[in-house]
Amino acid sequence: MLATRVIPCLLLRNQGLVKTVRFKDPKYVGDPINAIRIFNDKEVDELIFLDITATPEGRRPPFKMIAEIASECFMPVCYGGGVTDINDLRELFAIGIEKVAINSAAVADPGLIRRCADAFGSQSVVVAIDVKKSLFGRYEVYTESGRKSTGLDPLAHASRMQELGAGELLLTSIDRDGTMTGYDSALVKKVCCEVDIPVIACGGAGTLRDLGGAVENGASAVAAGSMFVFYGKHRAVLINYPAPEELQGLFGGGK
Fold it and tell me: 130, 177, 184, 210: which one is catalytic?
């Protein structure tokens, strides 16, 4: 295993995979099962799947599709999208998902995090925190796939989620999403200094150097989307992943 997890973060919309830029303009990039098979071959340690329309559409997770995804994956899978109660987690774990990411419901019903952690263990509960910077430079938590401003400060929210039993945070910069211009290093550093639980940095990765920079700023793991579904300056669709020796050279450890 690598010293640091490098995780493809894949977005589900309807039956396909898409990639957004700043949480907008989703571009179709392929079939989830085909992507999984490629990542299996590349011996990826973990995958994150986020259904970006479940919560805005007010529907539950697409359990049938998720079961198909889980059955194909050779690696642990984290799923997020449309999760609103403890029964959703129970069903997701029953079909083979190892971790569940909770975003909007963690703001609407913070006590859900405590109930889930008590029932399934903190290691299974990930709180996804989507953050956008205002015109005045203030960071703010957003929910519903970046559609709803909450007024919450991400540091206070992260700390509260840790207190309630979250085992990990998936921290995404909406402003950097899909841009491949690097993570928001200031945001990553601030949140990592605020909590003791692992933080997965997400949003903006375009190079191996970006991944290393996030870890230097405190991230325990790094996630990326565009970097693993596009190739070249014209952003041609190509499912890819760094070679083991590249990652070993960046983070150390071995597979």
Answer: 130
Please report whether residue 48 resides in a domain. yes
* Active-site residue, 130 included: yes
What's the CATH code of the domain at 9?
3.20.20.70
pLDDT for residue 249: 83
Question: With contact defined as beta carbons under 8 Å apart, do 131 and 177 qualify?
Answer: no
Per-residue tokens: 57: 């559409």
Which tens digit of pLDDT belongs to each residue from 214-238? Answer: 999 999 999 999 999 998 888 899 9
Instruction: Summarize pLDDT for 7-28 with one digit per residue, the tens.
Output: 999 999 998 999 999 999 999 9
Using alpha carbons, select from 39, 2, 16, 26 the residue that is nearest to residue 228.
Answer: 39
